[in-house]
Amino acid sequence: MEIVMNPNTASLKRDIDQGTDQQRLAVLDIITEVRKSGDAALFSFTEKFDKVALSSLKVTKEEIDQAYSELDQDILPVIREAAENIRDYHQRQKRESWITTQENGTILGQKITALDSVGVYVPGGLAAYPSSVLMNVTPALVAGVKRIVMVSPPQANGALPAGVIVAAHELGVEEIYKVGGAQAIAALAYGTESIEKVDKIVGPGNIYVALAKREVFGHVSIDMIAGPSEIVVLADETARAAEVAADLLSQAEHDERASSVLVTTSEKLAFEVKKEIYKQLETLPREKIARASIESYGAIYVTNTLDEAIELVNELAPEHLEVLTASPMDLLGNIRHAGAIFLGRYSSEPVGDYFAGPNHVLPTNGTARFSSPLNVDDFTKKSSIISYSEKAMQENGRKIAAFARLEGLEAHARAVEYRLED
């Protein structure tokens, strides 16, 4: 892990994985086959990529009951409380339709309508992510989406992780399918015999899932193209090295391509954190993944002032930003670009990942410069409302016709003028 003194923006590390040509072609082949063969393709790809021969795709009531019996009963109340916190936070985001009137009889407004159907992709593989279920499904429920379909790759035993099934069932998701990868995205976008197509697809996944979402965008909507996870810790001399190191490793253990960065004004803290990271790595269960992440995409930047540190943070525009300084709230106004901002020693990133309530589906790869966390608005669409009275048309019709002719659109102008004659 490199320590960079007095860095400039040219020295900042950033990994934007756009996929290889070979990966893109593989994804296109998968999508084409799913559109052609439907369920048969899903079974075939599941056996090929997940090494599981399934007899059915949909999770049954028996599998749901089995998941509840397997789940540690101490964790069920935690899932329920987390779900309530997430719901409460997202309820505050909900917006209502509105209408305004003018004295000449004009009526203008905006009608907000929930999407009819949404597909939620939950990653699988070596890990289980019940938190992804809560974070992706809850804002859709708050928005009023009636049909929510969840897909996730099966484990070696052909089942989904108990926590994933339970989290979905607790939220009332009725369609849960054991299929993952690009084939799951294709099924959600175009439909198969078992899985009816949806209007929007949300949820993170590997590079094949990301590329598939990019390919189907336009036929359906998507939330974002999520890259590897990332964290930036902004710290001064008051931060504790062991805690900073643990926070950096909390992202590094996600993925070998995850990025963990410390930006600090304290050279002493920089060297202490570096030493502590390698100490903690020795006892970390996912040591191999975390070490590869730290070595390839980890960095420590030491600046002369907090203003310089904040400038670097805004340039990085991280997915997660922790502010571990003497007065973190004082810095909030100067932080412009970050997916989620964690203020103070007791607001470590896992607090937001699992329990506090804000969404953990966040913009990555610097896209926090122009993107937002997943929210209720992502599951609605807006219709404009326009109603002109006769008086309003008489007042404004000739202006509108003149504007149409300015653009060379005579039929537009006449469409207004016929009403003026009347």
UniProtKB/TrEMBL annotation:
**E.C. designation(s):** 1.1.1.23
Concerning CDD domains, the annotation shows:
Histidinol_dh
Residues annotated as binding NAD(+): Y121, Q183, N206
Query: Where are the active-site residues found?
Result: E319, H320
Q: Which cofactor does it need?
A: Zn(2+)
Indicate whether NAD appears among the record's keywords.
yes
Report the cofactor remark: Binds 1 zinc ion per subunit.
Annotated binding of Zn(2+), by residue: Q251, H254, D353, H412
UniProt KW keywords? Amino-acid biosynthesis, Histidine biosynthesis, Metal-binding, NAD, Oxidoreductase, Zinc
Pathway(s) it belongs to: Amino-acid biosynthesis; L-histidine biosynthesis; L-histidine from 5-phospho-alpha-D-ribose 1-diphosphate: step 9/9
What is a GO molecular function of this protein? NAD binding
Q: Name any GO cellular component annotation.
A: cytosol
Where substrate is bound, by residue? S229, Q251, H254, H320, D353, E407, H412
Q: Which PROSITE patterns match?
A: HISOL_DEHYDROGENASE (PS00611)
GO annotation (BP), single: L-histidine biosynthetic process
Q: Sorted alphabetically, which Gene3D superfamilies does this protein's record hold?
A: 1.20.5.1300, Nitrogenase molybdenum iron protein domain
Task: Give the source's domain of life in one word.
Answer: Bacteria
UniProt catalytic activity: L-histidinol + 2 NAD(+) + H2O = L-histidine + 2 NADH + 3 H(+)
Family per UniProt? Answer: Belongs to the histidinol dehydrogenase family.
Role: Catalyzes the sequential NAD-dependent oxidations of L-histidinol to L-histidinaldehyde and then to L-histidine.
Its protein name is Histidinol dehydrogenase
**What is the scientific name of the source organism?**
Bacillus mesophilus
Q: What is the lineage of its organism?
A: Bacteria, Bacillati, Bacillota, Bacilli, Bacillales
Encoding gene (name): hisD
